[in-house]
Amino acid sequence: MAADVRRPRTVREAAPAKVNLFLHLVGRRPDGYHLLDGLVAFTAFGDRVEVTPADDLSIAVDGPFAAQVPADGSNLALKAAVALRDLGPSGEGAHIRLEKRVPVAAGLGGGSGDAAAVLRALTRLWRWPRDHDLHDLAASLGADVPMCLAGMPARIAGIGDRLSPCASFPSLPILLVNPGVPLGTPEVFRARKGDWRPALPAFATDDADGLLAALADTRNDLTDSARVLAPSVGTVLERLTAAPGCRLARMSGSGATCFGLFPDAGDATRAARRLRREQPGWWVAATRLR
Ligand code: C5P
What we know:
With about 290 residues, this protein is α+β, with helices and mostly antiparallel strands. The protein has helices at about 75-85, 110-125, 135-140, 145-150, 185-190, 210-215, 225-230, 230-240, 265-280, and strands at about 10-30, 35-55, 55-60, 95-100, 155, 160-165, 175-180, 250, 260, 285-290. Bound molecules: cytidine-5'-monophosphate. Cytidine-5'-monophosphate (C5P) binds near residues 143, 144, 160, 185 and 189.
């Protein structure tokens, strides 16, 4: 018997956590959005999205951080699904299951990554052409959604929506540490003081030593304002900096998650074990850049 092409099936997509390896503020648009110069990468750790055919669009959230995510129309992943459906001809539905493993309002692009993963999953479920350009739709959902849709290491410009993908990138071990304090992105941007920087020239990202050397001259310009709003960011950074084998400790996005880059995966796991023991209230994940 020929396969039924309409047979219900499940499509799964990863929603990797995003880290801002550096984030410089280079200006401000009249609408208040900040112009950025930065480098983003993604980790092997992240949320998970699963979509199955249904008549309408709906979402259910589970996983360790589910309680902090709305499962209604205000959920960015569901908004992405609605926007995608409205763009297409057929008005199809789907049930979305989101496994929320990444802390919320944490500087790891969780909501944007979920929305991007839903766009990828639904275009597969609904059998849209693979080359359908979703950049503008992604950008309309949030400044970070296009980079999450691309899902690859990239230099970013504009408000974060202009991407120059990195040809190659080291799969460095990385430790993510969040002190359990949610930070609102608009508040952190608003609290930030200081001048604009000039954008940096492009630099090579292919090997770990070169990347770490180039990153040494960069920083995250939102760190000071995040530390004012959440002083525990400073404590996390101190602990990561002091961890044996940590070559770079920095905050991601608007915080409060910070990361440590460790060329040796064993050092990263040992640091994770120690931090979990000594700071049981912190969220700690040892993973890799992908
Ligand atoms: O685009 P998104 O909804 O993710 O942005 C959330 C908020 O973060 C914006 O309303 C703005 O206050 C701030 N933001 C910014 N500059 C950016 C990105 C975000 O000021 N490039």
